[in-house]
Structure formats: C-alpha cells, structure tokens
Amino acid sequence: MVRVVFGDGDLDNFEPTSFTDQYINAYFVPEGADYSVPFDLEHARSSGDAYRPRPRRFTVRRWEPETEQLTIDFVTHGDQGYAGIWAQRAAIGDRLQFKGPNGSYAPAEEVDWHLLAGDESTLPAISASVETISDSKPCTVFLIVDGPENQIDFSSSPMHEIHWVYRSAAVDPETALLEAIKEHPFQDGEFDVFIHGEAGEVRDIRKHLILDRGINIDSASISPYWRRDHTDEAWRSIKKQWLAEQENDI
Ligand SMILES: Cc1cc2nc3c(=O)[nH]c(=O)nc-3n(C[C@H](O)[C@H](O)[C@H](O)COP(=O)(O)OP(=O)(O)OC[C@H]3O[C@@H](n4cnc5c(N)ncnc54)[C@H](O)[C@@H]3O)c2cc1C
Prior knowledge:
By secondary structure, the chain is α/β, with parallel strands linked by helices. 23% of the residues lie in helices and 26% in strands. The protein contains six helices and eleven strands. The strands form three sheets. The protein has a five-stranded parallel sheet with strand order 9-8-7-10-11, sandwiched between helices. It has a three-stranded antiparallel sheet with strand order 1-5-4. A three-stranded antiparallel sheet has the order 3-2-6. Strand 7, helix 3 and strand 8 form a beta-alpha-beta unit. The longest helix has 15 residues. The site of flavin-adenine dinucleotide (FAD) has 25 residues, from strand 3, strand 5, helix 2 and strand 11.
C-alpha cells in the first residue's frame, strides 16, 4: 500500500461528510493525454478511449481540518492499474482531480457491537470507522492481507477484537476471510455490519451472514469494491448484473 497525503492549500473547498466510509471519485490521467490537472471533465472525456480520464473511488483515510490535509491509502498491484501506478510514482507537486466525498456508513450508536470485515482496499474505511467507535464498545474486525508484514494496526482497545487473516497461511486465500468469520462465535446482542472488498469474497460472506447468522440485509453495509482479474472499467460493466444475480443467492 502507498499512503499519499494531499494538501498544500488546494483543499479549501473539501467538505467532509459524517460517514466513516466516505470516498472520493478521483480521475487518473492516462500517459500521453493532452490535458492535465485541473481539467474540464467533459472535455477530457471526449479525448478518445485511450486518453479519457479513468475514474476510481478511494476512501478518505483521514481528513485533518486544521491543516487541510487529506490522507488516502492506495493498494498497488505491480505494473497494473491507473490508480495503483499513479500512487507508486506520486511525488511532491503531483496533483489529482476528484469529486466528493460521499459515503453511506458510520457505526450505529444504538447497537451493542459492530462487525466489520474486508481486505486491503477496505482497510482505510475500517480503520477510519473503528477510530470513531468508543474504546468501551465491542467491535469485531476481520481483515485479510498477504502476511503479517502487511498488517497495519489501528486500535489498541481491548474491546476491539482485530482478527488478521493471512493469505500466505491459507489453504484457499479466496475463502480464508469467509472461513475466519464462519469459525468465529458471535457475541450476543444487536450488531451492525460493514463488509466490503473483493466481489467474490464479499458475496460469499454476505450469503453466510444472511443464511447462517440471520442478519437483516436491509440495514447492513455490504458491497463489493473491486473484482479479481477485472479492471475497474471491466468490473463496472458487469456489476449491475452481478448484483442482480447475487439476489438469487438467498
Ligand atoms: C467506495 C470505494 C472505496 C474504495 N476505497 C479504496 C481505498 O481506500 N484504497 C484502495 O486501494 N482501493 C479502494 N477501493 C478499490 C479501488 O477503487 C479499486 O481497487 C480500483 O480497481 C483500483 O484501480 P487501479 O486503477 O489501481 O486498478 P484497475 O485498473 O482497476 O485494475 C488493475 C488490476 O488490478 C486488480 N486490482 C484492483 N484492485 C485490487 C486490489 N485491491 N487488490 C488486488 N488487485 C486489485 C484488478 O482486478 C485488475 O486485475 C475502493 C472502491 C470503492 C468502490
């Protein structure tokens, strides 16, 4: 992961929301495009398929109003991905154009405990969410990363149980997060749910939580952030159908 802190006086108009999963819609400019930040979005979109800006969503890991600094944590994936490559190469003075933020989840105050799970792409939203949960309120978090060296700790409250799951130690890395959740006895009481990350993993966990744990899906925040072996464009082109088919899982 690469952490990028944005600031230097350009964020006067940034209006944070009260959602802890708030995200920006950022626009990455392909190499060779004849426009640069700041650009007119409509004009840039008419640059042809090779050069139009590539939209990607990224979570606000932290917003510091006093210094007007915005922190984003980017998962990088080698030489693939407009956003990942941009973050890997980011240097002082680089600029990123974005809209937002928007969001939809914040830990509910009225529940007895919170359940949160995801992968590296969800780690920023989960960390930001848990940081708002009182040290005396129980929460159970499951996070999957490649190995112990990829763990990024974010809470020291004994009431916050953080379970790190390692792909490197798993028989099947694609089901390891689900298996960890399945094996875990849930505590009593009302809880809210925040599950995001890779589409296939999120879908299997959603099914388990509805069928085996009896959660009310209407009040749960569960949705896929990305799809294995799909660029964001490819994923968005099938996402609607994927979500419709997911309804038949239960
Ligand atoms: C609301 C929301 C908030 C998000 N917040 C964050 C965030 O804070 N940080 C973050 O890193 N991501 C976040 N994501 C996910 C991110 O938008 C996608 O992962 C996006 O595809 C990355 O774009 P890219 O240009 O780097 O790669 P793409 O061009 O989209 O994809 C290139 C290749 O990389 C693979 N890939 C994409 N993402 C991952 C991944 N996480 N792990 C492994 N392989 C991957 C793709 O399957 C593809 O094969 C969020 C998504 C949503 C919807």
